[in-house]
Amino acid sequence: MKTLSKAFQKHGIDRNTVVSTASVAELAIAAPLVYQELISNKPSGETVLHFAKRCEEEIQGNDEMKNKIESMKADGTLLPIRRGKSV
Q: pTM for the whole thing?
């Protein structure tokens, strides 16, 4: 696939769903220990979207982590998913 949009369309995945939950994968890959701590304290019944928001808060609250994620996006380790605010 040449673009993410075409890949999402081919597989019938809504781009907004991917964008709104990308922080889960980004945190799991860039900071696995932080991710493990969050997931181990995940309340029963918490939605994926709410968990993704908690992951995003962790990322946004740590400049070093934000920079690492941006670097990983730049080198192709992470997909270049962009949200309304920079991560």
A: 0.83
